[in-house]
Design brief:
By secondary structure, this protein is α+β, with helices and mostly antiparallel strands. The protein contains two helices and six strands. The chain has a domain of 104 residues: GTP Cyclohydrolase I, domain 2 (2-Layer Sandwich), CATH 3.30.1130. A hairpin with an 8-residue loop joins strand 5 and strand 6. The protein is globular. The termini are far apart. Pathway: tRNA modification; tRNA-queuosine biosynthesis. Keywords: Cytoplasm, NADP, Oxidoreductase, Queuosine biosynthesis.
C-alpha cells in the first residue's frame, strides 16, 4: 500500500457501523508518508465518555494522545469509532486510559506514544491517568499537554 493508497481500509469513505464495544472496534493504520522523519502526531478527544463499571453512571474525560510514528499512522476515522465504542463500556478510568494507549501501541508500533486521561470528577475527586511507552525520543518537539487540572468553581 502506498502512502496514499486506501484500498485496504474498511472504514474511510464508507458508511460504517458504530462498534458496540472496544473489543469489537477495529483500529486501522496507514503507512507513514515520512517514515525517516521524527515528528509528533496529536489527537485530542475532549468529550470522551465511558461508564462506571459499578454504578453504570457516565464518566467523562479529556484524552490527549501524542505519538511519534514509526512505519504506521492510525487512521483517524477508525480511532474516532474506537474511542466512541467506550460510551456503553463499563471500566475504571485507569483501565480505559491505559488500555487505549496499549492498544494503539500494539497496532502502530510507534517510536513513542503517550496518553493523558484528564477525567472529570465524580464523588468530588478527579482522577487523571497517564501512560507512555518509554522516554520521549530526543530531537522531537513534543508540546506539553497543558490540560488544566480540574479546579471546580475556584
Amino acid at each position: 500500500m502506498s502512502s496514499h493508497d486506501v484500498s485496504g481500509l474498511t472504514m474511510l469513505g464508507q458508511n460504517t457501523q458504530q462498534p458496540t464495544t472496544p473489543e469489537e472496534a477495529v483500529l486501522e493504520r496507514v503507512p507513514n508518508p515520512h517514515p525517516g522523519s521524527r515528528y509528533c502526531v496529536r489527537f485530542t478527544a475532549p468529550e470522551f465518555t465511558s461508564l462506571c463499571p459499578i454504578t453504570g453512571q457516565p464518566d467523562f474525560a479529556h484524552l490527549m494522545i501524542d505519538y511519534v510514528p514509526g512505519d504506521w499512522l492510525v487512521e483517524s476515522k477508525s480511532l474516532k469509532l474506537y474511542l466512541t465504542s467506550f460510551r456503553n463500556h463499563g471500566a475504571f478510568h485507569e483501565a480505559c486510559t491505559v488500555g487505549i494507549g496499549q492498544r494503539l501501541a500494539e497496532t502502530l508500533s510507534p517510536v513513542w506514544l503517550r496518553i493523558g486521561g484528564y477525567w472529570y470528577p465524580r464523588g468530588g475527586i478527579p482522577i487523571d491517568v497517564f501512560w507512555q511507552t518509554g522516554e520521549a525520543p530526543a530531537g522531537v518537539w513534543i508540546p506539553p499537554q497543558d490540560v488544566p487540572n480540574y479546579r471546580g468553581r475556584g
